[in-house]
Amino acid sequence: MSAQCAVKAGTTHRVVVLGAGYAGMSAAVQLAARIGSRHDVRVIVVNGQERFTERLRLHMTATGQQLAELCVPGLLQGTGAVFECGWVTSLDAQTRTVRIDDDRVLSYDTLVYGLGGVADTAAVPGVAEHAHTLDGVQGAEVLAGRLARLGSGTVVVAGSGLTGVETAAEIAERHPGLHVVLLGRTEPGADLNPKTRAYVHAALERLGVRVRSGVEVVKVLPAAVELAGAGSVAADVVVWAGGTRVSPVAAAAGLIVDERGRIVTDAALRSVSHPQVYAVGDAAAIRQGYGIMHGTCQSGMPTGVHAAVSILRSLRGRQPKPFRFGYYHTPISLGRNDAVVQFTRPDGSPRRMRLTGRTAVRYKETVTASPWPTWGRMKKMPAAGAVWPRGGRFTRTGKTR
Ligand SMILES: Cc1cc2nc3c(=O)[nH]c(=O)nc-3n(C[C@H](O)[C@H](O)[C@H](O)COP(=O)(O)OP(=O)(O)OC[C@H]3O[C@@H](n4cnc5c(N)ncnc54)[C@H](O)[C@@H]3O)c2cc1C
């Protein structure tokens, strides 16, 4: 199958972007801004809800903090991209159509698939029935209401990755009357350097979070979580932060996906089985020299921009360039008054350098609030969005360090 797709005279090339998260929005804004007044290319953005989900702040929503209400049509304003509100229920890669809410069908010439990921509620029995997750604003608000009503009791945060750490810290700070327990296989901050990890531990301790690492949650019950060979922990509320899964739409459509359901891409971010489909953000399995990228906002936005630039190159009859990205930081909030920023090598491994305390809080806030100004700049100056660290020797494929 050829990926070359220069627009034929008199026709309109339809680019449909699925998912208006960090990656999908970056693709849509970049593409629409670069197209400008061209009438032969149309960009349509599909998202389950009108409100932009600030995933990076869902632990704040879950503790009753009011966030700015960002809406997708507002963020797309002035770009010419069209917003279509609805849930993608299936994709037919042969007819190049997408079904929305089971009752509408959209056709595309090129698809940008950016449906992100959600908490893996199928990971252990009982999660779907008895645990809260941080996937969307509505669910986070339900959790906020429950925590506010609780007054006293135990909240178990299951999963000691960074989402679990940020969530446990936020709940403990906002609800000092609650007993917060953070459970997980690894110790919090396992991938950070030892001093940064120690800082995270000290912050959790100061906030009163009880950490139990080296444990495996095997079941969530109505008022407890069961651990493998280590009894159970009573819980009034359980928050599941034990891993994510992606939407089944791509796999069901017959696209080649990895063992986690992410679309396997070529170097230019096109599906290896269906090159008219670009995969971006958490929904994509993208290989770099250091391995498959892990999903983050810092990497998701560049994938969206790169897909947009590649689509335009293809429309001009040129080959898309390979995508290269190197991580540079891991900012972690520890409540509202503390944070830590671990600077990293391009492969995500920790450097010695880090920020802590108020400086880290300001850094983290600047990063978290940066997407919409970035999109605003992109609308005026598309090239401004195409700058990110390429990772040097770390991201060269086929080369071991
Ligand atoms: C509490 C928390 C804190 C985090 N903190 C950080 C951080 O500090 N730094 C960082 O880099 N990363 C952080 N992450 C991870 C980061 O949020 C994700 O990596 C990022 O959101 C991925 O962007 P994305 O565009 O791929 O997906 P998303 O942002 O998840 O966007 C996907 C969009 O697609 C929509 N969608 C999904 N399925 C469908 C469907 N079937 N039909 C229609 N629409 C659909 C969703 O509603 C959403 O709007 C955090 C995550 C959480 C949960």
From TrEMBL:
FAD/NAD(P)-binding domain mapped to chain residues: 14-294
Statement: the UniProt record of this protein carries the keyword Flavoprotein: yes
Matching SUPFAM superfamilies: FAD/NAD(P)-binding domain (SSF51905)
Cited Pfam families: Pyr_redox_2
Cofactor(s) the record lists: FAD
Keywords, comma-separated and alphabetical: FAD, Flavoprotein, Oxidoreductase
InterPro entries membership: FAD/NAD-bd_sf (IPR036188), FAD/NAD-binding_dom (IPR023753), NADH-Q_oxidoreductase (IPR051169)
Similarity section: Belongs to the NADH dehydrogenase family.
Protein name: FAD-dependent oxidoreductase
Upper classification of the organism: Bacteria, Bacillati, Actinomycetota, Actinomycetes, Kitasatosporales
